[in-house]
């Protein structure tokens, strides 16, 4: 697991006749910004040489705060350390627990959009009908007829949408969510039944379920981890991140938009620097977030499956995870 403290970026260009090649690479270090810049320079030069030699390589590395799934180390602020585990603040401001050997697996269940999907077409149709009706009724002013028709259409669409959501979409989505929840729990219990030497803690999350393996530690690249993720239907991006970064990861504080806050604004430059932690706007946002977050839980403990033992390293991670997530509380999930 690599979560560096210092980041830098190098951009190289090479032109031959009408052909121009641009390479952009990040560099990182736990020691200093200068060491990170030297690493970025070396990576950019190596990539340029390989591209000019004919190798098909990505020219740019994405300017995303969290690149873990794509092979570049996790580019986030390190907030705290607990043994081998590291707590970071992600791109939108929530805290994440990153651990090299204790298996987390999140199973997300998508909700359907409850909005009336054909609202725009309905408004247009009603506008035309109302405008034509007003003209037939004797209103000579066509713009006025269109405006009245449009306002009437919007009002009727709002009423129909609200009625559709309340009577049709929300009950249907609730029933579908309950069915998908039951299917996911059945898959989890089937997996536990087929692996009785495992010990799994099951948590409810806002989007689905989370599993924490307690019986032993894992190398994220070992076949048993991949088989577990496949059997449980874990998000492929998360599985790829675990493989590339050799770590497991769990969000342990609320998503800001679920507690009435906007996302944390990223620093003006792409690469994280420790000095960014002292930016006034960032400090102000974190203060508001930390004042609101204690009223919510990130997940809720449901049950333990399996009869396996509890590994000491897993116990230590579980204590940190449950404390930050407020997993034993009845607070609303966010």
Overview of this structure, please?
Helix content is 41%, strand content 19%. A 4-stranded antiparallel sheet has the order 3-4-5-9, with helices on both faces. Strands 6-8-7-10 form a 4-stranded antiparallel sheet, with helices on both faces. Strands 1-2 form a two-stranded antiparallel sheet. It is α+β, with helices and mostly antiparallel strands.
Order of helices and strands: EEHEEEEHHEEHHEHEH
Cα gyration radius (Å)? 26 Å
Biggest sheet overview: 4 strands, antiparallel
Distance between the termini: 27 Å
Could you say how many structural domains there are in total? 3
Strand residue content: 15-25%
How many strands in all? Answer: 10
Q: List the uncertain runs.
A: 112-117
Shape: globular
**Strand line-up across the major sheet:** 3-4-5-9
> Helix count?
7
Helix content: 40-55%
Mean pLDDT score, rounded?
85
Q: What structural category arises from helix and sheet content? A: alpha+beta
């Amino acid at each position: 697991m690599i979560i560096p403290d210092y980041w830098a970026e190098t951009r190289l260009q090479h032109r031959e006749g009408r052909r121009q090649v641009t390479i952009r690479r990040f560099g990182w270090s736990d020691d200093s910004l200068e060491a990170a810049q030297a690493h970025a320079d070396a990576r950019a030069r190596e990539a340029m040489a390989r591209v000019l030699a004919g190798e098909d390589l990505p020219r740019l590395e994405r300017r995303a705060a969290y690149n873990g799934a794509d092979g570049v180390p996790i580019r986030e602020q390190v907030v705290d350390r607990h043994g081998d585990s590291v707590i970071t603040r992600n791109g939108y401001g929530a805290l994440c627990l990153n651990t090299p050997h204790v298996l987390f697996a999140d199973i997300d269940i998508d909700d359907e959009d409850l909005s009336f999907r054909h609202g725009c077409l309905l408004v247009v149709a009603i506008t035309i009908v109302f405008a034509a009706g007003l003209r037939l009724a004797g209103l000579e002013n066509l713009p006025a007829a269109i405006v009245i028709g449009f306002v009437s259409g919007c009002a009727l669409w709002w009423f129909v949408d609200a009625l559709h959501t309340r009577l049709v979409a929300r009950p249907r989505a609730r029933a579908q969510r309950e069915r998908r929840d039951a299917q996911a729990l059945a898959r989890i219990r089937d997996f536990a039944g087929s692996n009785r030497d495992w010990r799994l803690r099951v948590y409810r999350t806002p989007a689905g379920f989370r599993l924490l393996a307690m019986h032993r530690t894992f190398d994220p690249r070992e076949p048993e981890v991949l088989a577990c993720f496949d059997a449980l239907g874990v998000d492929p991006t998360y599985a790829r991140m675990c493989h590339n970064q050799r770590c497991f990861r769990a969000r342990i504080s609320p998503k800001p938009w679920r507690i009435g806050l906007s996302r944390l604004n990223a620093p003006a430059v792409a690469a994280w620097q420790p000095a960014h932690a002292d930016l006034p706007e960032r400090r102000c946002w974190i203060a508001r977030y930390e004042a609101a977050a204690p009223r919510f839980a990130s997940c809720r403990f449901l049950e333990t499956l399996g009869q396996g033992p509890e590994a000491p390293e897993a116990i230590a991670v579980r204590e940190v995870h449950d404390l930050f997530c407020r997993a034993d509380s009845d607070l609303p999930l966010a």
